[in-house]
Amino acid sequence: MLVSSGNRAVQLVFKWCDCKTLTFKMKMSCTILYPLLLLLFSCATLSEVQQKEKGVQAEGTKRLDVQESSALLAFSELHPDSFTWIQSELAELKSTVNCLKNTLQVTEEQLKQLKRKEDKVAFAATLGPIGNLGPFNTDITLVYKDVFVNEGSAYNPTTGIFTAFVKGVYFFTFSGHNRSSKPMGLSLLKNGHQMITVYNHPQGDRYETASNSISLTLEKGDQVYMRLRENTWVFDNVNDHTSFSGHLLFSL
């Protein structure tokens, strides 16, 4: 191919030359002819090399794909047990992933249900038909045993203590009934600290009622309860005059 390219170049040069002045022009163009021929040879050679290079790359890629396929096939033929084991492991891994996905979905749903359950907190209870309670020479915690509602089981009717299971803002209210021949003093406490109170002073011999209420921000584990103040008393009967109740307004 290089020789034919050179011959064509020479023919073009001879056509350009006039026969009468050929000898003169040949002598004058020697310095041009050789570089021209060299340039034509180089272009032809470069084009041929590039084509061969592309062919080699394509052939190499094809051989590589064939070799990979052949290697995989040869592995499966030479080690059928191992190949089967790999397929089995992949299938088991896929099954495990699917199982984990299902477990995650169930867990997320349980967390949502638990969250909804935590947000449902409400209780209401009274002392019940106990008659007069007190007076005592020290403060005592009141236990409201007749429970009307205890959603979320945050109120303990054995101890009389409400325990917050979720951080939030809560509303509490209470009322007390007494015979006014003696004073009545009731206090609502949060973690041992008095928040609000009511106090009925002696007013002859009649029955009176007092009440109070408050909203509190509670952390998880905070406790709220009622106490009867020393040297006072409180009264309740089947009419449930003396009560303690509260509920979660919203969680934080």
Secondary structure topology:
Elements: H1 2-16, H2 22-28, H3 30-78, H4 80-118, E1 122-126, E2 131-133, E3 140-141, E4 146-151, E5 155-156, E6 161-163, E7 168-179, E8 184-190, E9 193-200, E10 207-218, E11 223-228, E12 234-236, E13 243-251
Antiparallel strand pairs: 1-4, 1-13, 2-12, 3-11, 5-6, 6-11, 7-10, 7-13, 8-9, 8-11
Distance between the termini: 87 Å
Structural class of the secondary elements? alpha+beta
Question: How many H/I helical runs?
Answer: 4
Report the oligomer.
single chain
Question: Which H/E pattern describes the elements?
Answer: HHHHEEEEEEEEEEEEE
Q: Please report the total strand number as a whole number.
A: 13
Structural features, described:
This protein is of the alpha+beta class. It is built from four helices and 13 strands. The strands form three sheets. Strands 3, 5, 6, 8, 9 and 11 form a six-stranded antiparallel sheet that branches. Strand 5 and strand 6 form a beta hairpin. Helix 1 runs antiparallel to helix 3 and helix 3 packs across helix 4.
